[in-house]
Structure formats: structure tokens, C-alpha cells
Amino acid sequence: MMDESKYKLNYVYAEDFGTGYFKYGPITLRDKPFMIQSRGLFLRELPESIKLLVPKEVLERGVVVGDDIPKYLSSVRDAIRNLRYPLKDGIIRKEDEDSWKIIKELARYGFSQFYSDFVRRPDFKGFFLVIALSALAPDYMRDRMIDVHKELDEEFGGRLLQAITIIDQPFAVAIAEKAVTCTVIEAGHGNIQLVPISYGPIREGIVALNRGGAEANAVTREVLKDSGYGDLAKDEYVVEVVKRTAGLVPRNFDEAIKRAREDPSRFAIRVKINPLVEVELKDTAWMRFLIGEVVFNPKHDIFTSYIQQGRLVIEDATVGDMVFYGEMDIADALITSIRKVPVEIQDKIMSTIILSGGAFNWTVPPGLEDVATNSVDKIKIMVSEKLPDLANKLSISMVKDPQFSVWKGAIIYGYALPNTVRWNERTKEGWYYLHQ
Amino acid sequence: MSIEIVRKALEDWFTRRGLRLESELSDRELVLVEGNNRVYVRIANEEFPTESYIIDELSNAMRNRLKYNKAYIAFPLSARGLINGKLFRSHWVGVYLYDLTSNDPDKTVEELIPSIPIQTQQNLSEDLKRRLDDLEREIHNLREDFVKNDAMTLMKEVDELKSRLSKVEHIISELLSRVDKLERAAASVSHAQEERGETAVAGELPDFLSNNPWIEVLRRRGGEDG
């Protein structure tokens, strides 16, 4: 036991494949992993003169990631088509070979920063690698991840990796947050996952919603159009800034809209995008509440009319055997998730609810506390409207370190999961040894 | 060809290009300032120049070459076919051709060969040498005074430092032996813990690893599965 712990204190390595950023590095980095954008640039249609300057092995692989992207971006003729983000809502399609190429390159980029240092150490016999993926990642994706890393290990002469395991991102959050029984609600760009955890994720209790930050962006776009900024609504950067600055989560949606319509000047806001571009929401200031509300509850008549007009798409979807609900509100999703776990642990599951992910990142501007709220209080309010008794038992909090908690949790998992736990093909858990 | 007319035409052309006349060394030699560069211009006003005349002019210009960042010789347009460009470039001397018959003031002068700029050599003036000698003497005197007056004090201070250093060395060796004892004690405790199957590495763990209930929960999986 002691030797294993000692070895793993130096040689556990974690990779967190987020939709926006890839976070990676060994346990020796302590609190902060390295981080690059989850994207890759294909070196296609390069002018011959540039090809001469590109190292041969890079040219053969045909894709670059991280700091190498800016070096080549101006030389690639069709940068928009060749700059690719491989993970869509944390998932890669089976046949999407381009995305898998980028995943392999991201992993190689990370290892190559550490390998030369580690391989010189006499006691180094390969990393124990933990890969953090979305809880909704299908089995084929887990298998392919192992294959990709096996290939990389071979490229490094079979000395890079000793064993590989895979962990669900919400499970890693629970570990980093030191919560043994809890529910993690991860609100990402494209979906929201509710994962109950009791000494491990309870798969039957997972509920997935087919909306997230992207729907808040779509509503922001409509708000901009209705406010006379149809041209700016096409610019994703402007939409993101306006969403972050002007978006509000209402305590009570109808009440908030009523108050904002009665007193528009109190809710009016100017958003400065840059020294030249400014957006002002004045008569449409009441619409600020639509931006936040859609993440939590898109069932209101206003959203229904948007959907009927084709201005907003919120619908159920199926990936593998998992149904992603479009319109289910967060309180219903939480209640559904809790009901799906065995009754004797339901109490414990609700005692700690951890919110993570960028789509829960809402603030209340000073002076609007009576009508607007944050994500923690919003969920409490929503649940208490449906089941007041349940609301009293809930203890909801935001994750303490939103950016790195998954990586930290993965490192802890790799450190603590004993070497004797072997890979199980059915559950996709345990250590997959590469050389035994 | 009147040298005054040629000089006037050249001066006008230079002024339009932002060069400033610094001085006239003779009626045929101008010194101009162009940014940080000082430019020497020699005017050749022989109406029908020959190759030997051109080489004479180059050798005259070379006398002053190292004093200025750039140097040029201005020849009449009729010299165009006789200029040996390689020779001028190898001496870092440029060539202007002037044509007084031109109606366009901008085309009066043409830069045929640009001059390659060089760092100028500076001669130490007598005054500067004298001041350096004075400074050297002053430093010498100061050093002698310092050695006479302070050597004794310094020696005393060095002696004191030596004695304090030996005390510090003594303290360090005592501390090292105590650390050694402590390490041996810690190792025996850790060995005992290991035998009991406890983790003894919490002190070395990153903060987020220590006191984490998951460590024990996950370790128990080894018992179930392995």
C-alpha cells in the first residue's frame, strides 16, 4: 500500500476533456493543471512555401493544437473550416475521425510537456492516467479514448503509461468537493446533467436536460434583435458579453417582468462591448429576465411563442439510450433524479447539492436583489414552490473551484483507486493496464 | 560649369528631402545631417569627366570617409556611363548624378548608388585625455587613502566575522544531528503506520487530497474488487 501511494504521489496524471478547455497534467502540479483550448487546426491546403517551414512530423500528423495554432493560423487558407472544436456538449461522434485526431493531438501535446522530465527518473514506470469525460459520454467514446492513449503510449516507446482509467466529470467534481453522497448538477453549454452520487455515481439516477448556456445565448440573440441590434445579434462574442452582463435570473418570472415593464428605467442597462460598440436595453429591459430564466425553466408562454415562431429550438433528444429532456425545468429534473435512487439514500443525496458549470454563473446587480437572484437561491425557490418540505432539506452550493475541480477530482481518484481494481468492460471502471 | 549653381541646386534638392546643411568644408564639400547620420557630399563639376577624374574624386572623398556616417560624390549626368558601381560600393561611397537642364526640380538630382552607412571613428580630443588623466590620478589617490586608513579596521571586522562563522557552523552541525534523530523517529512511526495499513503521506499531499473522505472510500474498492 505504501509503495503504491508513494509512486502515485508523483505519477498520477489527469486529463479533463471539457467542451471549451482541455486541462491536463500530473499530480505534482498540485492545485493548478495546465490548460489549452479544446480545439485543433488542420494543416490542409498549406502553401508550399509554408510547408517547408513546418517540421516533418507535424506535417505528417496534419493537425496542431495549443500554442502552435496561432503560428499556423494565418497560413491556413480556410481557417474557419480547418479550426475545429472536437467536443460538442462533451461528446464526440463515433465516425468523426477529425475530432478524434484532435483529441489524440491534445493528449500528445500535454504528455510531451512532461515526459522528458519524468522518463529520466529512475523509479518512473509510466503514468497512472485518469481521463475525465462527460457522464453522458457513450461507451464507444470511453473505449476509443483508451485506444487513442494506447497508440500514444506506443509512440512514446511504451514507457509513457502504465494504466488508464476513466471517470465521469460530475463524479470528479464530487470527489474534489469532498462530498461522498450528493447530487452534482453540471450546467454546460449544450446540456445540463444531474448526477446523484453515493460512494460513486448512481447511473439510474442521472437526468439530462437538452439545454444550457447555448439556449441563454439564443434568447440573448432574440433580445438584441427586438432591441434594434439585429446586426450585432449575429456576432457570437457580442451575444456572450451581453448575456454575461445583462442576463438576470428572476426570483419569480411573472413578478419580475411585471415590475420591469412598470419601471423600465430601473432595469435599463448599457453594455459596452468595446470603445466603438455599445448596446442599450431600455424599453426591452424586461427581457433581461428571459436570458437567465430559460436555463432554469423554459416552459413559460413567452418561450413557447418563441419556439412556435421558430426563434428558439428547445426539444427532447436521444443519445444512445439516454433521453435529454428539452423543456423539463430544473426543479422537476432534480425531483426526478432523487426519485430514481433507492429510497433509503434519498435523504443523503439531497443533503448536498453541488452546482458546477458556466451556465450557473449568474450574479445579482446591486439594487435588484428584490427581483433577481443567483443559481443557488433560484433552485431553492423553484423546489419550494413544488415541494416545500423537500426545499427545507436541500443544501445547495456552488462548486468552490469551477475551472479545475474536475481535474483535481480526477487526480484524487487516480491516487486513491487501488491498483488491484482492474478494468471492467461492463462498467467501464477500474485500471486498464497497458503492458500486462 | 559654375560650382555655385551646382551647389545651390544640390542644396535645394537635399532640403526638400529633409536633410539639413550642417557646414560647408569648402566650395565643393558639404556636410549634411539626415536623422542620426552625418552625410559628406563632394561635388564634382567637371563638365566632361573621364574615368581617371572620377577615380581622383573618389580618392579625395575617401580622405574624409571615416569621419561621416555616409559619403557621396555628386557627378554631372554625363558621368553616368563611366561610374564603376562595384568600386564605389566597396568603398561605401554613394553617387548622385545632377542634371541642371531638368525642368522638374525633383529630377535635378538622382541617387545612382546609395551610400552604406558606417559608425564614425571618434578622435579623443586633448581636453578629454587630460580629464581622463585627472580622474585616473584622483582614483589612485583615493585608493591609497582607503588602504592606509581602513585596512586595519577591515582586518578587525574580518576576524570578528570568522569567529561568528565558526559559531554558526557549530550550531548547524548540532541542528543537523537533531534533524537526523527526528527523521529516524519519523521513519519508525511511518513504518508502524504502514504495517497497520494507514496512509502516512497526508503531510506531503496537495491540499485538496488531504482530509478527503473519498480516499478511504475509493481504497476500500480494492478490498471489494481485488
The average pLDDT value of chain B, as a whole number, equals 83
CATH topology of the largest domain in chain B: Trna Endonuclease, Chain: A, domain 1
Number of domains of chain B: 2
Strand tally of chain B, please? Answer: 6
User: What fraction of the residues of chain A are assigned to beta strands by DSSP?
Assistant: 15-25%
Uncertain parts of chain B: 196-203
Q: Biggest β-sheet of chain B, characterized?
A: 6 strands, mixed
CATH architecture of the domain at 2-39 and 85-169 and 403-433 in chain A: 2-Layer Sandwich
The percentage helix of chain B is: 40-55%
**Reading side by side through the largest sheet of chain B, how are the strands ordered?**
1-2-3-4-5-6
CATH class of the domain at 2-39 and 85-169 and 403-433 in chain A: Alpha Beta
- The number of distinct helices of chain A, counting runs of at least 4 residues, comes to 19
The CATH topology of the domain at 2-39 and 85-169 and 403-433 in chain A is given as Nucleotidyltransferase, domain 5
Rough outline of chain B:
elongated
How many helices of chain B? The count is 5
N-end to C-end Cα span of chain A: 20 Å
Radius of gyration of chain B: 41 Å
Secondary structure category of chain A = alpha/beta
